[in-house]
Amino acid sequence: FAQKTVASRSGSRLVVSWAAMTASRRSGSKANSLDRAASDIAPSPAKNPAMDQPWSRQDLASIALLSLLYTLQGIPMGLSGSVPLLLAKTVGYADQAVFSLCSWPFSLKLLWAPLVDACYLPAVGRRKSWLIPVQLLCGAMMVLGHGAIDRWVEPEEPGAAPDTKSLTTYFFVLYFLMATQDIAVDGWALTMLSRERVGYASTCNSVGQTLGYFIAFVGFLTLNDPNTCNKYLRSVPVEGKGLVSLSAFVKFWGWVFLATTAYVWAFKPEAPEAKAAKVGKKQEDGGGGG
Q: Most buried residue, 65, 113, 130, 183, by most Cβ within 10 Å?
């Protein structure tokens, strides 16, 4: 009797286990069926149109121009970081603190940004009406004023202190012009690039300004330092003189400003206002891509 009882219990357990396995398989197949049905009903994720469309020649040219314009912005910024290092041995902290005020225009550009956006010459273009004059002024200041910079940093009179007030005024004006240029370029980038590529404007800004700052800070200090030049860049050492002086560096980039401005003026048309407004409306409605 005991053996029959054990056998019946074992059989009952086998039946229960088999039933549980069958139920599990059915629930699993049902879940898989529901998943397949949901995947068929649910829409596929939207694709970014910028990833599917090939780059146009116009977009590539616009990206290159934007990168160059933002790189030019970084040149005065990098120089304003290099000058305090050139003055470190001859002026105190108070004069260096005064010189640091030259960077204020970039922090305050929101005050005149509405004016730059609202006032323009329709025959020239909303953005070029400001971009061309400020870059011409900046280039002229760098080309015509390069000779005075060396005298302000290292006066010819023995024992004379550097003219930090003139240096601060000079770079303050450069910063003001570049802050105004930044307002114009930021606005122009929205219509210069196609709707699918407009998101790359911020990349051009970040990369361009960083590159310009690096050239005018690290690049200039390397070429201006006599020890670095004699050790790594010269075959015959020259005592007390680097490869590039501050005035020569400023003059070179002043000509680059003027050449770039001439190219933009002559060969880079701006989209008409009606087309620009239409592109802006599409970007607001569609979220802009890129």
A: 130
